Every structure is written in structure tokens, then in C-alpha cells.
Amino acid sequence: MQFQPILDEIAFQIQRELAQQGPRGQVARYIPALARVDAAQFGIALRTCDGQEAVAGDGQTPFSIQSISKVFTLTLAMRHMSEQALWARIGREPSGNPFNSLVQLEFEQGTPRNPFINAGAIAVADRIVALYGAGAQRELCGFMSHLAGEPIAYDEEVAASEAATGYRNHALANFMKSFGRIDHGVQEVLDLYFHQCALRMSCLQLARAAGYLCRDGAHPLQADAPVVSERQARRINALMLTCGTYDAAGEFAFRIGLPCKSGVGGGIVAVVPDRLTLAVWSPALDETGNSLLGMKALELFTTRTGLSVF
Ligand code: GLN
After folding, report:
1. ipTM of the complex
2. Rg of the chain over CA atoms, in angstroms?
3. Binding positions
4. Which of 21, 31, 45, 187 could connect to 55 by a Cys-Cys bridge, CB 3.0–4.6 Å?
5. Nearest-angstrom CA–CA distance, 39 and 22
6. What atom of ligand 1 comes closest to residue 162's alpha carbon?
7. What is catalyzed by this enzyme (predicted)?
């Protein structure tokens, strides 16, 4: 299949809608540095298992990947920890609640429902601090650059903006700490969490970096360097399908039919196992914190190509 004309067509359609109607939805306002992003942008890019690439619209413009980073921190933790040590404190069930919700944590004794809601990602960040100590941020950035095949960096302004206003994340981390579910200092763990959310990448870089998820765990660019095992890659995809888009996971499965992970920067990464990884970006969000036009673009893509996990 030739993907470039398909992406061009989707970008044309979405950009025409943006020009005619303006962006619907809202950029993430609770993070001041994200509230300033121009909402009238749209990018899309993909990379196939055998290395074919296609990119359209603002597909090479870097943006704040936010919660998409949760896939990569989970991957890093899975690479280096025993299953037991990792999953002892983190569940694997969809939450059906907003990504930053506190309610279920109390019922479940400080154990987050899954690694892709904020509480779960903060618990994963604690595990990464356990692995790398003060070198955790450097290690994560190096891992992202290794996956993307080029240097990736943090946006320090976004990280500082979140640290200054991330009251809910502070609440989540303190609450888990009170149940003994976090071993390290709340500040240290949140510092890593805010930095992972502030990684700046384009759709094309994300499509490349997530390539191991459609390649049975093999490195996206180097065939001889597995990122995770085939079984682990399958498990990450399963978690993305059931938990990757929070309380919209059912709607994503229904309309798009692929494992996806979204972020409040407006990006979404989607996986077609054994075929390709796809990334879309448009900053305006719906009420569940998922990119409105990103979701529409993914729906157009799967409708047009017939690709689905079902
Ligand atoms: N940094 C954001 C937060 O913690 C990430 C949320 C998201 O992308 N869903 O609130």
C-alpha cells in the first residue's frame, strides 16, 4: 500500500476543516506553557515495519508529547525489572475515569488501576528512579534518542510550568506515598514525571520511536537490537488498547480499532501490529483530554485503509 497519498488526503481534509471552522475543542489550559500553543495545527506521520515512511501537514513540528511518554517509561521499566517487581504496585484494568482522577486510588489502597493514568505513570516513574537514581532523566532521554535515531530533548519551560501548577499530580503522588506505594521522595519522582511529559518530539519521530510496538519488540531502526520481547510488546499494545486513552478507550476501540496512546499536548500514537506505527497531532482536545482532530484523522486512516486489530 502507498501511504503518502493517503496521509496527504487526510491532512488536506483536516486542514480544510481547521481553516473553515477554526479549531474546535480546547488546548490544555491547566498547564500554562501548553495554553499558548497555536491550536490550528495538524500533523500526521507513519513508519511501516519495513521502513517505509510518510509524513504530511505539520508532521515534522515538535510538540510536547505529554502522556504518550507513559508508553516509553513503561517500556523502560519492563526492560529492566522483573514482572513481579513492576506489577506488584500497578494494576492493568481500564479506569473509566479521567486521567488525573483521584477517586479510585482510595478504594484500591493507593494502587493505580493501570500505568497510563497519571497515578500509574507516577508509580512507574518511582520504579525508574529506583533503577537509575539521580541519572533517571538522562537515562530516559538517552532511551528516547536511541529509539528515535536522533537526539531528543526535554522542553524545560513545559517541565517547569507543570511543576509549578501540577497540584493534582502532587496530590496523587502524596496519596500513593501515604499508602507506601512510592519508595522515593515525591519531589524526585515528580521531577522525572514532569520531564517525561515535557519531551519534545514530532509525529515522525514518534512514529519511528514507537516502531518496536509493531515489530514484535525489535528496535525500530536496528534489526539486531530488541527493545522488548515479543510477549512484552504484545502486552504493551493490549494496555494501550484498553487504557491508553483513559475514559475514551471504548470509543477509540469502536471508532479506530487500534492500540493508541494520547497526550494532552494533542498527540496520539497508534499501532497496527506487524504493519506500522502512526502518530497524529492537533492541540485542541475534547473533554476526555484526547485530540479531537487527531482522533478524527485516525478514524479516517483506518476507514480508508481497512487496518484494524479486530
Ligand atoms: N502532564 C500531564 C498531566 O500530568 C499529562 C496528562 C496527559 O497527557 N493526559 O496532567
Report:
1. 0.95
2. 18
3. 67, 118, 162, 169, 193, 246, 264
4. 45
5. 9
6. 1
7. L-glutamine + H2O = L-glutamate + NH4(+)
* Sign of the four-CA dihedral 12, 13, 17, 18: negative
Q: Identify whether the C-beta of residue 181 lies closer than 8 Å to the C-beta of residue 89.
A: yes
Q: What are 11-48's pLDDT values in tens digits?
A: 999 999 999 998 889 999 999 999 999 999 999 999 99
CA 307 to chain centre: 21
Instruction: Tell me if 252 CB under 6 Å of ligand 1.
Output: no
**Cα pseudo-dihedral 124, 48, 305, 2, rounded to 10:** 160
Question: Which atom of ligand 1 sits closest to the CA of residue 67?
Answer: 8
Instruction: Give the number of the atom of ligand 1 that is nearest the alpha carbon of residue 118.
Output: 4
Report CA(78)–ligand 1 centroid distance (Å): 21
How far CA 295 is from CA of 76, 176, 178, 257, 262, in Å, comes to 27, 32, 37, 11, 9
Could you tell me the residue ranges of all domains in the chain?
A: 4-63+202-223+243-305, 67-197
pLDDT single digits (tens) 96-140: 888 998 888 888 889 999 999 999 999 999 999 999 999 999 999
Ligand 1 contact, 169 CB (< 6 A): yes
Same fold, 4-63+202-223+243-305 and 67-197: yes
Question: Beta-carbon neighbour count of residue 243 at 10 Å?
Answer: 25
Does the predicted TM-score (pTM) go above 0.90?
A: yes
- Torsion, Cα 123 144 130 174, to 10 degrees, reads -30
Q: Which residue in the list 27, 55, 64, 67 is annotated as catalytic?
A: 67
Question: Which position among 124, 227, 264, 269 bears the catalytic label?
Answer: 264
